[in-house]
Amino acid sequence: MLRIAVPNKGSLSEPASAMLHEAGYRQRKDRRELVLVDAENEVEFFFLRPRDIAVYVGSGKLDIGITGRDLLLDSGSPAEEILQLGFAGSTFRYATRPGTAKDVSEFGGMTVATSFSGLVTQHLAENGVDASVVHLDGAVETAIQLGVAEIIADVVETGTTLRNAGLEIIGEPILKSEAVVIRGTGAPDDDPKVRQFLRRMQGVLVARRYVMMDYDIRVEHVEKAVALTPGLESPTVSPLHHEGWVAVRSMVPSKDAQRIMDELYDLGARAILTTGIHACRL
């Protein structure tokens, strides 16, 4: 069986399980369940702490896993990302009191507090900065107030928490993270079970981003209409019973669907319909 690590809690857990369910895999009904066998799909799921997943996958104990890019890089584990999943996005940045420093190049001799000590240590080394790193498990913004560090490095969403603590964001982002599928470095590329899993997950990603659009339009306007709805390869165009009219079917980005419908209507298209896509293979 394919052995897959899945986050058991936190911001990664629910979206990961939802995506796996959409991909046709069984998911646990009880949060206390740590191992789930999906015999029909020949998969065994292990529900683990998100921070531990890269370690298990990198050691070869599990075949693949779902975790955050930040957690993967912070672990230093011999694992690599093989698919971006598009959820749990975050930006990792430095912050400090106004006037302390303007850029990472000015951190020399200072102390940086963070929950991602591996990631920060690597980033400082890449920038040639000799600074100390203190590992904290959470609430790092208080480290400066308590005199533990002059700089902090943390996940930033709106920046409100930092501003409330009297801190400002400095420098360029350390990392932009999201949920990713990972495998051990050096794992074979041709594992058929892994390829099947990735196809299913990619199918979910496409199904979430696209809708199927159908419409009727006169033959003389087909080329302009098709330019608006080119599809992934080419739209399907079928003649209708009424001469001079055709039916067109194409996948379009869901975020653009309303605008495209308006433009098609202005071209003379009628009976314009959109339907959701539940699954697909490209």
TrEMBL record:
The lineage of its organism: Bacteria, Bacillati, Actinomycetota, Actinomycetes, Kitasatosporales. CDD domains: PBP2_HisGL1. NCBIfam families: hisG (TIGR00070), HisG_C-term (TIGR03455). It catalyses: 1-(5-phospho-beta-D-ribosyl)-ATP + diphosphate = 5-phospho-alpha-D-ribose 1-diphosphate + ATP. Pathway: Amino-acid biosynthesis; L-histidine biosynthesis; L-histidine from 5-phospho-alpha-D-ribose 1-diphosphate: step 1/9. It is an enzyme of class 2 (transferase). Keywords: Amino-acid biosynthesis, ATP-binding, Cytoplasm, Glycosyltransferase, Histidine biosynthesis, Magnesium, Metal-binding, Nucleotide-binding, Transferase. SUPFAM superfamilies: GlnB-like, Periplasmic binding protein-like II. This is ATP phosphoribosyltransferase. GO terms for molecular function: glycosyltransferase activity. Residues 207-278 form the Histidine biosynthesis HisG C-terminal domain. Coiled coil: none annotated. The gene is hisG. Its cofactor is Mg(2+). Residues 49-203 form the ATP phosphoribosyltransferase catalytic domain. Feedback inhibited by histidine. Pfam families: HisG, HisG_C. It is found in: Cytoplasm. Its main location: cytoplasm. It comes from the Bacteria. The keyword Plastid does not apply. The keyword Transferase applies. Its EC number is 2.4.2.17. InterPro entries: ATP-PRT_HisG_long, ATP_PRibTrfase_cat, ATP_PRibTrfase_CS, ATP_PRibTrfase_HisG, HisG_C, N-reg_PII-like_a/b, N-reg_PII/ATP_PRibTrfase_C. Belongs to the ATP phosphoribosyltransferase family. Long subfamily. PANTHER family: ATP PHOSPHORIBOSYLTRANSFERASE, ATP PHOSPHORIBOSYLTRANSFERASE ATP-PRTASE. Catalyzes the condensation of ATP and 5-phosphoribose 1-diphosphate to form N'-(5'-phosphoribosyl)-ATP (PR-ATP). Has a crucial role in the pathway because the rate of histidine biosynthesis seems to be controlled primarily by regulation of HisG enzymatic activity.
